[in-house]
Write a structure and sequence with these properties.
single chain, about 325 residues, alpha/beta, 7-stranded parallel sheet, 11 helices, about 40% helix, binds nicotinamide-adenine-dinucleotide, binds uridine-diphosphate-N-acetylglucosamine
Length: about 325
């Protein structure tokens, strides 16, 4: 049985679906601090399987202990965490508490139960912003905000555990920019409040929830002056987790890999692609650069291909099409 923490979140729910489709037995947990109970029905509807789920908090060690006592958990995919960079700067203590303390609770209970296969949601944000692009796994690490540091520290904690106990194998998955949604339009990204990320902002403009998109600068040193990122379809990303889990199970060793497409698209590229597939005009205004942003980054994705035989299936038009279908079918997201 695979334990998936943060199972009802954006990436967790898509990975849950892929795991069930691949025949894995899955137990999901979440405290719903950034997700909806409705995801549970939606996952069942997509997969035609009853989903096993228990509500609980990563900060509750007793809950985690009873979870491992009562279920035959063999490996863990850990998504649960807070991901807002802005919030992490404003309230670093609760951010670190959730992401670091939650991780430590989980690892302690895993250790006590001889469960030692772990897939970790890391981020491209762990690469030092001064690195040249594309980002390669061996490059120097560092961050500019508590969220990024929490991922950096989490990686370090896991590496220390691996040194102390060689029976552990860990997949450090550094995600680039996940967008898109399941093709059913039943699950997708549903940020609370004003979206920080580009794609949910675009879809909310398209559906009439927001008047226009603010583009954070058109004077970056990029061909059209807007920021460049490596957008990856969330289903391709989810499938990367299954490949990584299989690697841990079969190879019994750790791996650190980028999960990105290896291609960069600018903000204006994404707007144009979205307009093409949706038939909607995205009104935008150019505003000041967002503090902390960098001009461009994208992945070198060769290592994931080599070690996992993982490559992406979906292009940027398909990412936009699926994001739009999700938003159109659910104009207010999950409505919570
Ligand atoms: P998300 O917020 O949609 O999902 C995270 C889930 O964890 C939510 O359902 C939330 O309710 C749950 N959660 C948070 N704290 C919890 C706690 N203490 N106990 C139990 N459940 C808790 O985020 P996501 O986009 O699905 O991201 C999943 C993971 O991937 C996160 O760790 C995030 O930092 C990482 N990541 C995300 C991105 C991205 O762009 N979405 C990029 C890189 C890395
Ligand atoms: C953000 C996070 C990063 C996280 C990543 C993936 C910040 C500072 N960084 O980065 O830690 O790993 O998401 O989840 O929040 N843009 C606009 N208008 C908008 C929103 C975005 O022009 O309303 C631009 C940005 O300037 C950037 C691009 O769109 O050039 C992508 O932005 P975003 O989706 O927030 O992702 P990242 O900047 O990569």
């Amino acid at each position: 049985m695979i334990l998936v923490t943060g199972a009802t979140g954006y990436i967790g729910s898509h990975t849950w679906v892929e795991l069930l489709n691949a025949g894995y037995k899955v137990l999901g947990i979440d405290n719903f601090c950034n997700s909806s109970r409705k995801v549970l029905d939606r996952v069942e509807k997509i997969t035609g399987q009853k989903s096993q789920f228990i509500e609980g908090d990563m900060l509750d060690e007793k809950f985690l202990s009873s979870l491992f006592r009562n279920n035959p958990i063999e490996s863990v995919i850990h998504f649960a965490g807070l991901k807002s960079v802005g919030e992490s700067i404003k309230i670093p203590i609760s951010h670190y508490q959730n992401n670091i303390h939650g991780l430590l609770n989980l690892l302690k209970v895993m250790q006590e139960n001889q469960c030692n296969k772990f897939v970790f949601s890391s981020s491209a944000t762990v690469y030092h912003p001064n690195n040249l692009i594309p980002y390669v796994e061996g490059m120097s690490l560092g961050s500019t905000n508590p969220y990024g540091w929490s991922k950096y520290m989490s990686e370090q904690i896991l590496r220390d555990i691996e040194v102390a106990d060689t029976s552990w194998s860990v997949a450090y998955l550094r995600y680039f920019n996940p967008i898109g949604a399941h093709e059913s339009g039943l699950i997708g990204d549903d940020p609370k409040g004003v979206p920080n990320n580009l794609m949910p902002f675009i879809t909310q403009v398209a559906v009439g929830r927001r008047e226009y998109l603010s583009i954070f600068g058109d004077d970056w040193p990029t061909p059209d002056g807007t920021g460049i990122r490596d957008y990856i379809h969330v289903v391709d990303l989810a499938r990367g987790h299954i490949k990584a889990l299989d690697y841990l199970i079969n190879q019994k060793q750790s791996l650190t890999i980028n999960l990105g497409t290896g291609q960069g698209y600018s903000v204006l590229d994404l707007v144009k692609s979205f307009e093409k597939v949706s038939g909607k005009k995205i009104h935008y205004q150019i505003v000041e650069r967002r503090p902390g942003d960098i001009a461009q980054f994208y992945a070198n994705s060769q290592l994931a291909k080599k070690l996992l035989d993982w490559t992406v299936e979906y292009d940027v038009d398909r990412m936009c099409k699926d994001s739009w279908r999700w938003q159109l079918k659910n104009p207010n997201g999950f409505g919570e």
